Amino acid sequence: MKANHETVEVNGRRYARPSAPVVVVCVDGCEPDYLTQAIRAGVAPWLAHTLEHGTSLIGECVVPSFTNPNNLSIVTGVPPAVHGICGNYFFDAARGEEVMMNDPAYLRAPTLLARFADSGARVAVVTAKDKLRTLLGEGLSGICFSAEKAGEATLENAGIERVPELVGLPVPSVYSADLSEFVFAAGVRLQETRRPDLTYLSTTDYIQHKCAPGALEANAFYAMVDRYLSKLDAMGAVIGLTADHGMSAKTDAAGRPRVLYLQQVLDDALGPGAARVILPITDPYVVHHGALGSFATVYVSPGPLAQARECLQRLPGIECVLERETAAARFELPPDRIGDLVVIGDHLTVLGTRADRHDLSGLTVPLRSHGGLSEQLVPLVFNRRLEGLDPGRRLRNFDVFDLALNHARSA
Fold first, then answer.
1. Domain 7-246+376-407 is in which class?
2. What is the pLDDT of residue 290?
3. What is the dotted CATH code of the domain comprising 259-368?
4. Which of 19, 147, 292, 408 has its Cβ near the most Cβ atoms within 10 Å?
């Protein structure tokens, strides 16, 4: 299929070396309808052409449908059971404390980005938020920086310097659509000046948390995405676009957040200290979601385990409550990092700990969030026809590099 049949093997999968530059884009929070509505509004002509002449598929993201697990699945080609990153945040039992899951020490598998770089490929990674940079760049001999901290990139820590000057844009606010535009603008400038063989661009879901598909601000965002992808396409890049997760409204009919405070429920039912609720959506950037998502894990002693499960299952808005081994098997998660119970809210419901632990003052629009099964469907869009693809194959967002490198037709 490719002119160059050499391959790189990573985590049990073989990838063909690119015969043209390959750019994989993870548009954070991009449920497929965002693309549909932008095309219908006439603001995304490149996407419209690509969906007609390239390939448009629907895949599934990793559950929990959060940023860290899915970005790491995309760049390793395997689920969290293999790479170990199962949330943005978790309870580190060995340390006995709740911590952010952005330390590369938690990563249990190499990235294909690092392996390609080791094999001699030129590799570049640009992520919006700095929380992902160290994980995506683990072991990578190449370019890796975040838009958030672009002004701090050096040859020593990022493989590149003077990034704002290169991109021609100021370092943007972390709470803005400009953060994602900086990622795309950097990707274009890197193609113009460095011509990486493999590029990974990962954006932020600031807009998706605020705006439903078809909203004016959402369409403006995807018009921006469309312009930059068109530029990359014009430079001969093979482009694969996917998302780390979708996004859903999490409100009642009046637009108020629909929240179940699980720690409060369990404290009332079992007594304080009998259970610990962990919210893996937690990260340093909680203004737009208040650390409320549709996936939680619960640590509880064996005695009241059945009682805790029954108590949670009775709550309106709960999709399912699974014990550790069942959840690990169903969602391909590392069992030692997910607690005794996994709790998933339905498409309208988010999960919290106690009301006084969540600051919702930053929510200026009705809450939109993610984490559950209802945010699992994501786009898989390519500017090439795909060849040799099994029509019965289950497609995942972490197949995007396989599809772009092994199945995309040469131009």
1. alpha beta
2. 67
3. 3.30.1360.110
4. 147
